[in-house]
Design goal:
This protein is an alpha+beta fold. The chain is 50% helix and 13% strand. The chain is built from 3 helices and 3 strands; from the N terminus they run H-E-H-H-E-E. It has a 3-stranded antiparallel sheet. Helix 1 packs across helix 3. The protein starts with 12 loop residues before the first helix and ends with a strand.
Length: 78
């Protein structure tokens, strides 16, 4: 269960994870480097890199995204 009270919705792992999936889905190749995700996330969401990493970890754990040595991608199998 994720805590939702006492924090801004924009800093919620679910919200940031959805943002990341949306950005990846909009790309033609559905891939981005972690550096690109960090830049877009910190600029558009105004959250820290720590929040983005936490969301990336969560998405990876639930198999929504994959990672090769260079890029994050949507796991199409899920």
């Amino acid at each position: 269960m994720l805590p939702t009270k006492g924090s801004h919705p924009e800093m919620n792992v679910l919200y940031i994870g959805g943002f990341i999936l949306k950005r990846l889905h909009e790309r033609k190749r559905k891939r981005m480097t972690i550096t690109q995700l960090m830049k877009v996330g910190t600029k558009e969401l105004s959250v820290s890199v720590d929040h983005i990493i936490l969301a990336l970890d969560w998405l990876y754990i639930i198999s929504a995204i994959g990672y090769d040595s260079k890029e994050v991608f949507i796991n199409e199998a899920t």
